[in-house]
Known about the structure:
six-stranded antiparallel sheet; 28% helix; alpha+beta; 123 residues
Amino acid sequence: MKIFHCILVLVALMSVSTFAADIKPPAFEDIVKFTADPVKPEPSDYFKDFKITKDDLKAVLRGKVVTREHWLHDYSHVAFGDRSGTIALKDKTKVRWFVKPGGLACLIFADGTQIFLVYHKDK
Length: 123
């Protein structure tokens, strides 16, 4: 019975990894509306100039898609400075986005689907 459970867990983990590799962020060209939330006051002014524009989102969307677990545990999450907003796509899909100053981002769709990204800001 233990072997069965181990196999079940391995299959589940493999399917999560495959899913992350198969899912793709929307194309930048499909964005018809971009909105950034107002920047909230932070305990530090260190990231006061960190902003995400529609053009900045282009680099985010070209980022590497990773699993949630990989995103949460294998990267450094910079405290404070997160930016968020929404985009609307040509097909009327609305997507919530948030970007961290250290190069991590997440897209959240209305159906609950989340895409976790690691990106490098264009120079």
